[in-house]
């Protein structure tokens, strides 16, 4: 059986593995999953938007945290948006917002969506203090009108900094910041199995670390992949 066939067989769902002893799976994320020990990687500080959101044609969303900011400050979402992923889109829609386009999980993919609109279209990127992609700069260089406003800031959580992780465990990193925070107080062992949610996250790993990148930029896909490695 090829490794691909083996993965397809083993990743059909977590129920397949319940009867077998498993390597422990650690999920470094702000979202949890029942098949992993979830370690919240970030603490978030929200800032109230100062821009007139309704003055823009579209918002740009690259995180579910934007919707959390709207909820925290009781802001009604009246401006349509493009979202970096399905999860980000669902979060905005859950608070009453409208999403007109969804990317494939990477900030760089939003550049293509933006450039499908006329250059007269006005955009506001509601973002974190630190971001991994420079797609906004490239859009501006091509003459597109994209403003930015920082509405939240992320900090390494005490939970990830003090986490006790087994040397033979499976580690799932779901953002560049989750890798950065983990490495502040930990070293990845050669016996750890490392799974990353995408290429931007992978870039944050030390050169010595061997890793597997999930086929889709979803936690579910990462978990399925971890379960395929998980039997001892």
Describe the structure.
Strand 5, helix 3 and strand 6 (99-102) form a beta-alpha-beta unit. The chain starts with a helix and ends with a helix. The chain is built from nine helices and eleven strands. The strands form two sheets. A six-stranded mixed beta sheet has the order 3-8-7-4-5-6. The protein is α/β, with parallel strands linked by helices and 232 residues long. The chain folds into two domains: 3-41 and 159-229, Rossmann fold (3-Layer(aba) Sandwich); 44-155, Rossmann fold. The longest helix has 11 residues, at 219-229.
Describe the structure concisely for a colleague.
The chain is 30% helix and 23% strand. The chain has 232 residues and is α/β, with parallel strands linked by helices.
Core attributes:
single chain, 2 domains, alpha/beta, Rossmann fold, 232 residues
SSE arrangement:
Elements (H helix, E strand, L loop, with lengths): L2 H8 L14 E4 L8 E3 L2 E5 L11 E4 L3 H8 L8 E3 L2 H9 L4 E4 L4 H8 L7 E7 L6 H7 L3 E12 L1 H4 L8 E4 L2 H10 L7 E4 L2 H4 L8 E3 L5 H11 L3
Parallel strand pairs: 1-2, 1-9, 4-5, 4-7, 5-6, 7-8, 9-10, 10-11
Antiparallel strand pairs: 3-8
Helix pairs in contact: 1-9, 4-5
Query: What's the CATH C level of the largest domain?
Result: Alpha Beta
What would you call the structural class?
Answer: alpha/beta
Average pLDDT taken over every residue: 88
Number of domains as seen in the coordinates: 2
Termini separation comes to 19 Å
Q: Give the overall shape, derived from the CA principal axes.
A: elongated
The amount of helix comes to 25-40%
The name of the CATH architecture of the largest domain is 3-Layer(aba) Sandwich
Uncertain stretches: 1-21
Q: What's the main sheet like?
A: 6 strands, mixed
Proportion of residues in β-strands: 15-25%
Output the helix-strand order: HEEEEHEHEHEHEHEHEHEH
């Amino acid at each position: 059986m090829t490794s691909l066939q083996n993965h397809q067989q083993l990743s059909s769902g977590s129920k397949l593995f319940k009867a077998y002893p498993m390597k422990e799976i650690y999920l470094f994320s702000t979202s949890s999953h029942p098949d992993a020990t979830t370690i919240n990687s970030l603490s978030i500080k929200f800032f109230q938007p100062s821009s007139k959101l309704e003055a823009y044609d579209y918002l740009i969303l690259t995180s579910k945290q934007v919707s959390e900011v709207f909820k925290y400050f009781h802001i009604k979402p009246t401006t349509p948006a493009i979202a970096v992923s399905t999860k980000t889109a669902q979060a905005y829609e859950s608070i009453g917002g409208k999403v007109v386009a969804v990317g494939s999980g990477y900030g760089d993919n939003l550049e293509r969506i933006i450039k499908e609109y006329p250059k007269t279209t006005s955009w506001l990127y509601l973002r974190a203090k630190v971001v991994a992609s420079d797609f906004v700069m490239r859009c501006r260089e091509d003459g597109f009108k994209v403003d930015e406003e920082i509405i939240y800031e992320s900090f390494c959580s005490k939970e990830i900094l003090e986490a006790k992780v087994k040397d033979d465990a499976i580690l799932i990193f779901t953002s560049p910041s989750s890798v950065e925070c983990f490495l502040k107080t930990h070293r990845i062992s050669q016996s750890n199995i490392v799974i990353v949610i995408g290429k931007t996250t992978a870039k944050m790993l030390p050169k010595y670390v061997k890793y597997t990148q999930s086929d889709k930029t979803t936690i579910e896909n990462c978990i399925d992949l971890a379960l395929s490695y998980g039997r001892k």
